[in-house]
């Protein structure tokens, strides 16, 4: 097999503190694997600016000017991590054999790339980077991440445990990925649905090298919630079960009321009026809210809006 042409795709949102370092590290690493013939000489780097409000784009343009192996893609605004990845991938789909997506903050160990390419050369079309240890994460992040992957799996979404968006895909997989048109694209859930031969490469997650996380708690929870509700109608079924349960309880209460009436034991009671009202209106609200959530999803999807808008490409 000839050395494959590899494209590294890196979504960047307000990453001015780290971009130079990331570029330097990746360049050094690229030189090494190109020398060893692991990847083709014309393998490149694609930096996608996801509507950063700092100097990220200026830095990307600077890097593009001095290195023709850097492709700069500028989105017209912030579209989010997943869309930024898709923009970088789809824009360059025809020019490369395989693609690796990696975060800008060097938290994913770049040395795992070698293993990914080897697995690819042995025939895998998808290679997942899996964190074998999360010592660098806070206990809170570890706890919520564990919960998230467990819930996803229990609901039948085939997520790969402890795998984020550090993965290799080949051109064929990318073409198929293009057929998943949802705007709320959740790559960790979608990619395993594509099938084909896949492998895992393990690495330990490092500390963010500079700057701070672009996923504060609120954004992280929203991401998890989107992941769950775009992939499974299980929460809706839970509401159905809950509805059945409510109905059963309501019948018991009706029985009690009738019994009280028949034996002439009707004390005007505040508790017995308020309790069911509160309980049932509460559960109704919950059910409606959840249904609303799915209707909202349908609403977003039927609009068929673009996932991202590319404003400019440098070194195309
Ligand atoms: N990112 C992005 N758009 C966003 C948020 C994040 O492109 O709206 C990028 C960010 O620059 C980084 C990657 O997505 O390269 C992962 O973000 P981060 O490291 O902040 O997330 P964490 O590792 O803390 O989960
Ligand atoms: Mg990070």
UniProtKB/TrEMBL annotation:
- Write down the InterPro entries for this protein, in alphabetical order: Glyco_trans_2-like, Glycosyltransferase_2, Nucleotide-diphossugar_trans
List the transmembrane segments: 238-262, 274-295
A Pfam family this protein belongs to? Glycos_transf_2
**Originating species:** Dyadobacter helix
Q: Where is the Glycosyltransferase 2-like domain?
A: 8-177
Gene3D superfamilies xrefs: Spore Coat Polysaccharide Biosynthesis Protein SpsA, Chain A
Task: List the PANTHER family.
Answer: PROPHAGE BACTOPRENOL GLUCOSYL TRANSFERASE HOMOLOG, UNDECAPRENYL-PHOSPHATE 4-DEOXY-4-FORMAMIDO-L-ARABINOSE TRANSFERASE-RELATED
Which keywords does UniProt give here? Glycosyltransferase, Membrane, Transferase, Transmembrane, Transmembrane helix
UniProt keyword annotation of Membrane present: yes
Record's bilayer topology term: Multi-pass membrane protein
Question: Signal peptide position in this chain?
Answer: none
Enzyme Commission (EC) number = 2.4.-.-
Recorded protein name is Glycosyltransferase YkoT
- Respond yes or no to whether keyword Lipid biosynthesis is given for this record: no
GO CC annotation: plasma membrane
Major place of residence: membrane
Query: Top-down, what is the taxonomic lineage of the species of origin?
Result: Bacteria, Pseudomonadati, Bacteroidota, Cytophagia, Cytophagales
Give the location in the cell: Membrane
